[in-house]
Amino acid sequence: MKYIPLSLLWVLLSCQSSAPEETSSVNYYDLGETGLKSGGVKMIPIHNGKYKVWTKRVGNNPTIKVLLLHGGPSATHEYFESFDSFFPQASIEYYYYDQLGSYYSDQPTDSSLWTIERFVEEVEEVRTALNLDSSNFYLLGNSWGGILAMEYALKYQKNLKGLIICNMMASCPDYGRYAEEVLSKQMDPTVLAEIRQLEANKDFANTRYMDLLIPNYYEQHLCRFPAAEWPDPVNRAFKHTNSAVYTLMQGPSEFGIAGRLEKWDVKARLPEIEVPTLTVGATHDTMDPKHMEWMSTQVKNGRYLHCPNGSHMSMWDDQEHFFPGLIDFIKSVDVGTFE
């Protein structure tokens, strides 16, 4: 053949431009699996082998490995699935992970398990099992996962290459005040009064409670689409949330925190975090974006990423700012140009 048809050439070039870059001689798609291939899924024993948690590896990059910590507590990795549309093209290796109590992992009923301290040790067990270390290990936590990421860094930052705190303030009391003094005042007073009455009556199971919250709070501050148009991974994560663990730690109300996390506050300890750190805030978030920006000035080596169109799930409702900023942070740390 003396020429390639233009249509075929366009297809070939398109495939090449959208394929993940190879890191030196490493094939991004080679998961290094031996024996029975599982598509990157690995069940990891934790808590002295008593339980197992679900993880799934995507990609291969020896110097960039991102472990994703979902929110809740006890939501699932599923709402992170938007990362599939961005991280492979940037040759970023990443790990989905359902924490203990979440849908794809074991779900014991022992309430003594649901503490920050035990979850931190769980993350350390997962890190060890996945062979992540300070030469490659980035920890990304969203919402409750941000609490867990901060606490992990305060104890084990020697194992980290980079830290990413998405949509989680460093103080639950401050979060509660922001919900009370700012977010609630953005709501129709009649709607807010009815929500408050339902909460005062502890009538959280009343369908009216969610009927009010979804259009007036969730669609405004959690994921900024009409609920009927929420992405499937978001719906699956909500459907699979372990309500027993969630209520015990977060509390039944959506305005602030009333469970075991109610008094959690590490603002004064942020200067102890020395690894490169990105904090991510959003204009419409349940978390105060000014607080998120302030956090980036308190850690030793921080940067702030603002999502002007985003909410608590900016990986969905402000992808145009969230992913470029996130990937730029990871890449700059990887090549040593982060400032």
Written description of the protein model:
By secondary structure, the protein is of the alpha/beta class. The chain folds into two domains: about 30-170 and about 265-335, Alpha/Beta hydrolase fold, catalytic domain (Rossmann fold), CATH 3.40.50.1820; about 175-250, no CATH class. It is built from eleven helices and eight strands. It has helices at about 5-20, 115-130, 145-155, 170-185, 190-200, 205-220, 230-240, 245-250, 290-300, 315, 320-335, and strands at about 40-45, 50-60, 65-70, 95-100, 135-140, 160-165, 275-280, 300-305. The longest helix is centred in the C-terminal third of the chain and has 17 residues, at about 320-335. The chain is globular. The protein starts with 5 loop residues before the first helix and ends with a helix. Residues about 1-15 have low confidence and may be disordered.
What's the structural blueprint in terms of helices and strands?
Blueprint: H1 6-18, E1 41-46, E2 51-58, E3 65-69, E4 93-98, H2 116-129, E5 137-142, H3 144-156, E6 162-166, H4 172-183, H5 189-200, H6 207-221, H7 232-239, H8 243-250, E7 277-282, H9 289-298, E8 302-307, H10 314-317, H11 319-335
Parallel strand pairs: 3-4, 3-5, 5-6, 6-7, 7-8
Antiparallel strand pairs: 1-2, 2-4
Helix pairs in contact: 2-3, 5-6
